[in-house]
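FAQ: What does the model actually see?

It sees only this:
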Amino acid sequence: MEPKPALHVLVAAPRGFCAGVERAIKIVRLALEKYGAPVYVRHEIVHNRFVVDGLREKGAVFVHELDEVPDGAHVIFSAHGVPKDIPATAQSRGLAWVDATCPLVSKVHRQAERMVEQGLHILFIGHAGHPEVIGTFGQVPEGSMTLIETRADAETVRPPEGDLGFLTQTTLSVDDTAAIIAVLQRRFPEIAAPRSEDICYATTNRQAAVKAIARECQLVLVIGAENSSNSQRLKETAIRQGAKAQLIQRAASIDWGWFDHVTSVGLTAGASAPEVLVQEVLDALAARFQTDVSEVTTAMEDMVFKLPRGLAA
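And it is asked to produce this:
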């Protein structure tokens, strides 16, 4: 029997679940325990099929819109946040609802409201169609915000006359966003900035960790969903450091052809991917290679968010 080829594996830390995702998943689990199945969830609670399927098995029912929720049911809003009219509609129908919006996303919502109250037009840096962007735009009157997706957008945007402010989606590329902000501040020197960085601590930390491992690896595997913004940004971050990178749902998604002539691989997970999937990939690597595994830690995280009052007890 031929010996297994050697493979050096660098595992990024921090990785995987952030405090907002932990809170959102816990909200669904506690609601199922307290109210019993079914509990309805508007959209995926977080962008991860493994997590969603696990909650579905426990009795969560995932729907696209509130009109799919029967009268008298309990409904939970996803971690990405929702427009204001969603809770208002739930309230008018007498639905018992719980908001699992990440507190860091809610912070952006409140900043948007304050800026508009102050008479500012907001240039919002984000990705069109992402649930977080839709939710944030839905906090303020239509026409109060303009979406900026790229540096080219920032160079060409023609906002309404008057004072401006900018805000950002929480799961963007740190480097790309900084470049877009620099353009806006050059073009509009008086533009108001948010009180603190909008890109969340977990997004920032995971990108920094990927930078640290990607410089030492030929290939980086990012565990995450195609529709997960923060996971896509991790893949892009690795590629910019000179590594090849692949986004995978779990170990079964690996194409072993990627490993031809590869002796070093990095591994990380997006903020919605559980640690069990990281271990699954490590086990799959160990089955094919003689692995030497090292963890590279660039930050320590101890953030915990409070649960909604009705579930905290």
